[in-house]
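Objective 1b. Sequence-to-structure analysis of TatD related DNase.
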Amino acid sequence: MKKIFSKALINAYSRNQPYPLRSILQGSSTTSTQKFINLTSTRNIMKLIDIGVNLCDDMFKGIYNGKTAHESDIEQVIQRAIDKHIDKMMITGTCMQDIHEAIELIEKLKDKFPNRLYVTVGVHPTRCSEFTEQNDIQHRNELLEIIRRHKEIVVAVGECGLDYDRLQFCDKEHQKKYFEFQLEIAKKTKLPLFLHNRKSTHDLCEILKRHIDELGLFVVHSFDGSVEELKELLSLGERVYIGINGCSLKTEENLQVVKEIPLDRLCIETDCPYCEIRQSHACWKLLQDSNPFTFEAKKKEKFENGFHVKSRNEPDNLINVLKVIAKIKQISEEDLAEITYNNTMKVYFPHLLEQ
């Protein structure tokens, strides 16, 4: 299939990189960047990948704070996403129960939505109490067995990492121990990582440095850190990518950080049903200037098929994350969609690129 490179994409990419894309096309490029260019797809219909969805959350079952407000509308949610150019969605695994539930959902819907839903397998830092000295080897083996049995849909080890914002769930030392424990799973399976990082960038980087030569690619998702933290992460080398969602776009400082993320290290996500873009966010004005995707939402108590639920984020809102970042980066939405799609394919779906 012939590769097509738009002038806008070349110029936009060059503005955000230390080396010009134009020189790459002429044959004088670094190896890593050449690989990025080789992934560029035929420019056709816009395609997006949401790297972080929580489709097994109770809200998609119609349950809010333990009370049922309406029937499950998960199939409508997925179809709305597909209708808004979401080609693939990665369901985040945060604990053993979530992982099993996600796999069950994917198996149930695989005929209706083939090659759309995937899952990550790991334990969230706030859930690391699942690991104990008595059961950690057994727990690891169970995770490895899940990965082995469902290798067609498991695309990453995670969500794992560190969270120093919610230490009431799991203390620092326990988190660090079992983050490294899960890095061993990534090494053994040769899977990429889906990483969590809250107020823990330095420790996260120090741990990753000890293992970096044996790890594959990884995304630090839902990034909301400072420019200095971004630089510390990027200093780890070409393996690291940054995931951006609505919670990454709350403040003016957040917007400046996004501006500094190299385009070839950027992935996008919703983290739905959380992290929606709100009117109080600094990015709201940018969104209003971008012909935003709008939808009619009803309160959960007045649920109606075919409508969003108020204050419940959905994967189709990924288009608005894209619109905001395109404004920040001053490139077209189409170019940004192509770049982030190819980045995500490189990290999580390299086997599909080889086909």
